[in-house]
Design a protein that fits this description.
alpha/beta, 9 helices, two-stranded antiparallel sheet, 9 strands
Length: about 240
């Protein structure tokens, strides 16, 4: 009876004894997938918590899902579906043999019945574009490899946050990453810039909706580098709550 990502939010609030708080709280819930209240696949969610109620504020922009759970096992599909409108700028076609490409190039011209806002699938797509993981042999493998790559990166800037109507524009993010790849920027730097971008998103949404408390949950926050980056950006002006 409680939607998957709302359950995540309630859980981190309960664990930190903040269910009864009178102060509004931004709940950031990022993971691989969960059935959403609009019948889509959620996973990049922002909720406003007040008076023991959760309201969905915004989310990462939807992108297509054609192959259901297969997408979670094959990061190459996340890259394909995220970049379907500008494939000529990528090397995604190289991840498929001739027979597969004949099938998928036709499939992406059709209208999907399902969309996702999943940050987990964003990690998969970026990992595939950087050619570090085309298939997951265990859950979260691509994300883990991307985190490891980022840990050895250095960057002076990050990716620009853009909005498409009321949602975060993931297509703009992907175009910026592809631009860096084609420019020859190192994989370590791109991976780190992606992590910094995600931390910047948390800060921007907190500012946008004027909240001083931020609670974070979901499998994406098993990523120690991301947790460190979020903590560093928010700790001076915000109360931050993670699972313990």
């Amino acid at each position: 009876k409680v939607q998957h990502h709302k359950a995540h939010a309630y859980a981190v609030l309960a664990e930190n004894e903040k269910l009864q708080t009178a102060s509004p709280t931004l709940c950031v819930v990022w993971d691989g997938t969960g059935y959403g209240e609009d019948n889509q696949s959620w996973g990049g969610e922002f909720f406003f918590y007040k008076d023991q109620q959760l309201e969905r504020l915004t989310h990462f922009g939807y992108f297509p899902v054609w192959q259901g759970d297969l997408m979670a096992r094959q990061p190459r599909l996340s890259a394909l579906f995220l970049c379907k409108d500008f494939l000529q700028e990528t090397n995604v076609k190289n991840y498929f043999n001739e027979k597969e490409w004949l099938y998928y190039s036709k499939l992406i011209q059709s209208k999907p019945t399902l969309y996702t806002s999943s940050v987990g699938r964003l990690f998969d797509g970026v990992a595939a574009l950087l050619e570090i993981c085309e298939y997951n042999s265990f859950e979260g493998e691509a994300s883990l490899l991307l985190e490891t790559l980022a840990a050895y990166g250095h960057c002076a800037d990050t990716y620009k946050i853009t909005w498409h109507e009321d949602d975060l524009d993931v297509m703009s993010l992907m175009k910026q990453i592809i631009f860096d790849i084609n420019k020859g920027i190192s994989k370590n730097e791109i991976a780190l810039k992606f992590h910094v971008y995600l931390a910047d998103v948390v800060l921007e949404v907190a500012k946008k909706f004027n909240v001083q408390r931020v609670a974070l949950s979901g499998g994406v926050f098993q990523n120690a580098l991301l947790v460190d980056l979020v903590s560093k950006k928010l700790q001076e002006h915000y109360e931050i709550y993670f699972h313990q």
